[in-house]
């Protein structure tokens, strides 16, 4: 089972079951645990080809055994997300660890991906179980509902789950062109029902300076 | 199993911290100044406009006095709740009640237009005057200290209520031929703490708990006038560090 040991280390208690984790993210373990690199992101042959083609590459290992295994990656903050049959969309670089029973895949994100500097494709995690995602600073989970659409800076977006539509919205006008842009010209608008995770930090994005 | 707390517009705090790294501002048809690119998400209808916007002329005149770095600021206007954060640094809000506070330019994130922002005489610092709330970031939690004290230059975030900031050198280390050589070459051991800022008088000094500076925001050039610090018209434009080689003559009394 997943639990946090401090906010930057994930402890997973294994009892003969398996988890999928980012390759090389193990920092310590006790008990009998084995690590096996999964070729092509662990999505099978078709998934492997898709990942190659889409550039959403992920190197994953399968961790099995009895005992406790600790994961961490460059002191990033770790957030646990429980999934109950719904789908989580997360960047491959922000995904640390998933229950082995969850299906991972890739999906097209459209323009949003281009604006957040993450490429046009993203990773999906589907099923029932737990996922650990990483962020620069602890993530804030924000609920989106029909009456409350949410606007997110592309650089701060890390993941979302649920049934959400996303639109890239631009506030570029003539002021942007004469150098008086607001610095917040591109936003992703989320509508529908679900939860969006944002980090308290911004990646450098294509639209970040305008 | 710990489940993340999911916030919605009802449960988000109003003008308070969501966690140590994220601050939530509630706008009710009001305005806030914020540094470009520090908004991470918002609910509701909020417009972001560069400060050169004509409609803000009056607002600028009353609460924005650093015309030369206007490019780095935007005005958020509308109603809703917005989240501010800065590179995963700690953020905190401070209330000024008819007071004044001087802060390192890179640390200031946002402020209410009821405050007036001015360039400080001290280069690289900004002064806020008036009544209202502002949000500042720091590398690690902020510590409040009372003068008289001496602080490390890298740990200084700002100061309130006018204590008098000045430089302080440990002269035992810095003077004499040996001292000069030592501070130039580092041979013979410098502790790295020979230079501090000294504060005396009534007030509060804000320190961050690391010595890693946050990137500075340019505060804009000051008018090139005689008598204006940093104005660039003083003779001997480069200030002399004690222990500098050029001081040898003076050392030997020539």
From TrEMBL, chain A:
Q: What SUPFAM superfamilies does the record point to? A: TRAP-like
Q: Which Pfam families match?
A: AIM24
Against Gene3D superfamilies, the record matches this protein to: Mitochondrial biogenesis AIM24
Lineage top rank: taxon: Bacteria
- Cited InterPro entries: AIM24, AIM24_sf, Trp_RNA-bd_attenuator-like_dom
Concerning PANTHER family, the annotation shows:
ALTERED INHERITANCE OF MITOCHONDRIA PROTEIN 24, MITOCHONDRIAL (PTHR38074)
The name on file for this protein is AIM24 family protein
TrEMBL record, chain B:
Q: Which InterPro entries match?
A: AIM24, AIM24_sf, Trp_RNA-bd_attenuator-like_dom
Q: Give me the ranges of the annotated region Disordered.
A: 220-254
Q: Which Gene3D superfamilies match?
A: Mitochondrial biogenesis AIM24 (3.60.160.10)
Q: State the species of origin.
A: Streptomyces gelaticus
Give the protein name, as stated in the record: AIM24 family protein
PANTHER family tied to this protein: ALTERED INHERITANCE OF MITOCHONDRIA PROTEIN 24, MITOCHONDRIAL
